[in-house]
# Entry
Amino acid sequence: MRKKCPYCGSDKTKKGFYNNQRQRYRCNSCGRQFQNHARDKRLEKTLWKQYVYQRQTISQLAKKYKKGKDWIREHIGNVPSIEQDHIPQPIIAIADVGSAPHLGNRFIVSAQ
Ligand SMILES: [Zn+2]
# Structure
């Protein structure tokens, strides 16, 4: 059974090279590389959020997770750019509903 791409969901993936003793995969659809570890992806998101929202530096994160700075950089870099663009903006949603109250909840649904 082929491994599914965690980024685009395609199953056109290929077993690739080893990186730090770990099997890596490459997706033929979106071209991204990933490892066979769901945990890594969650950690990457956590790292990225702390880096972006909590303004932690690479050195702070490296110390916190007891990893090298290169490791932190690599894992922050692996977060797909599509999610980086998807920063939630609840304030705008609330403002829109407030300026068009007759649209009510339907507006919220269509905005998502
Ligand atoms: Zn993909």
